Each structure stands twice: as C-alpha cells, then as structure tokens.
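Reviewers of the previous submission asked for a worked example of the structure-prediction workflow described in the proposal, so we include one complete record here. The input consisted solely of the amino acid sequence. No template or homolog information was supplied to the procedure at any stage.
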Amino acid sequence: MTTEPLERLRAICLALPDVSERLSHGEPTWFVRGKRAFVMFANRHHDDRVAFWCAAADGVQEALVGSAPERFVRPPYVGGRGWLGVRLDVPVDWEEITRLVQDAHRSVDGRSR
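From that input alone, the workflow returned the following structure tokens.
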C-alpha cells in the first residue's frame, strides 16, 4: 500500500481552517481547533479496509452505505454516532472525498452551524 491515499486525505483536511493533525488510537486524525475530531484515517483499523471515518450529518451514513456499500461502510465505534466510513482501497472520486471532508469539518465546527 502506498501512502498516496493518506497524503491526499491529509492535504484535503489540512487545507481547512483551524485544523490540526495528531495520532489518535494509532491513526492520523484531524481535529478542529485541536479539540473535536472530524476525520480519522483507518489503515486496516479493525478490518482489512483502507479507509477514513468522518463525521456526517444525520441520515448521510444510511443513504451512502445503502446506495454504494462497495465504497461506504458503517465504521466500528463511531458508526453508531452517524459517522461514515469511506473506502480508499477502491476507485476513489477525490472531488467527492473533498466534499465529504468539508461537510465533516462543518458538522463539528460550532462556528459553522
């Protein structure tokens, strides 16, 4: 596995305002103002997928997992809170990934509500 998906995801996350990165549960994770996680990289974290998990608005997880289960999953632990798992080990639309990450950022940034 190359580091390309991680590096591309990192660039998208760090381009957003007030974002920092640190390890959480052994994986690169991005936070808004150092406090609230909005994206977590998942390199075979509890399964065999390379993916990321992100905050999502109500109903988004169900809609995307239901419409494209080969690309979207309900991640362990945070899936019960509506977070979305996005696979990076399948063909990826990076424009869609960018929109999902931006939406995740907005969903946890209290100033954006």
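The mean pLDDT is 92. We consider this example representative of the routine output the project will generate in years two and three.
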